[in-house]
Amino acid sequence: MSPNIQARRVAIVGYNRIPFARHNTNYVNASNQDMMVAALNGLIDRYHLQGKLLGEVAGGAVIKHSRDFNLMRESVMGTSLDPATPACDLQQACDTGIEAAIYIANKIALGQIDVGIAGGTDSTSNVPIVVSESLRKSLLEIRRAKTFGSKLSQILKIKFKDLAPLAPGIDEPRTGLSMGGHTEITAKYFGITREDQDQLALESHLKMVKAYEAGFFTDMLTPYLGLDRDNNMRKDTSIEKLSKLKPAFDKINGTLTAGNSTPFTDGASCILLASEAWANEHNLPILAYITFAEVAAIEYVKQKQNLLLAPVYAATRMLKKAGLTLQDFDFYEIHEAFAAQVLTTLKIWESDDLMKSFGFEKALGSIDRTKLNVNGSSLAAAHPFAATGGRIIATMTKLLHQKGSGRGFISICAAGGQGVTMILEK
User: CB-based burial of residue 215 (10 Å sphere; 0-12 exposed, 13-18 middle, 19+ buried)?
Assistant: First the structure.
């Protein structure tokens, strides 16, 4: 690659998603591919991309069937895009959607492509059912056996208990804890109260209800399977109702509940990225630019409270590279996997002592909370893992475009002790 290549600016020129649905509701029979195709087709229709040959489509899903080995390419083939449009799968847990955007953006910046789509999809309803490890090994031995007698011998070794399927799960393989289990430890370690968690959850729902009523999401969604808005959002929730919910992870001393944690969710999202020249050639307004992004990871096996705190590192490194402070933003979109994780991240950024414990010299400082998740976030919309990045980028993009100028800060945590931050500008 030539060292003289000048990086091009990467514009966000479009977005679309389907409404997010709590698992085992409207999308119970929809596959990852079904939902991704629906989100893509909505994008194609809105921006008149029928028959267009795009540089690439990238995205993925966290929970995949084995048949989804080429998910994004098969999804592209199910749309009206030129079938010569290439696609690839990638996955980084809850960071999948935003990581896909970075992947496409980098290719545009380097001049490898002029336009691309980043997306993500996940179903926690239509999940693969896994057989026990002993049954799996037995079935493979039967397949390898050459004679009927040897096959029968292997069949007879199968025990009745081996036939029970394994329930799908997303527990951390190195700790055996769920994200909620880890975050319960986080809340206790950093002193995050139940009251503060419930308040953040309430604000998320009320702000998103208000944004829907104002029409903010009208041109960002494609209705799907009977939904025209996210069905986890609660117009009638209250502190009183949230305070009555029982702890979900630590049943005795816990503070995380179904109300201040995101539920299992189904959905898909995508965003359209392009060079300035391509956007102008196709008469698409430049809504915002991706200017900086940072990916980080953190040790969480020994320090179990750290699972969702990698954005502490990502944000600090990104701001240094950008020459900005945490206060230099008009809007903040922080993924609300759990209210406790958002509040912990903010608390760490605000504290010299806590930032020093993460290896930094001083605090990033506090943010203006009135600029945080101004139209609600994941606690209200819910969280189909790979689709959340696209939803958050789209929301920030529209906020900046409506304002006409400004700068937005995005932070998304993920399983496996990972996290991504991003800066959008207008």
Answer: exposed
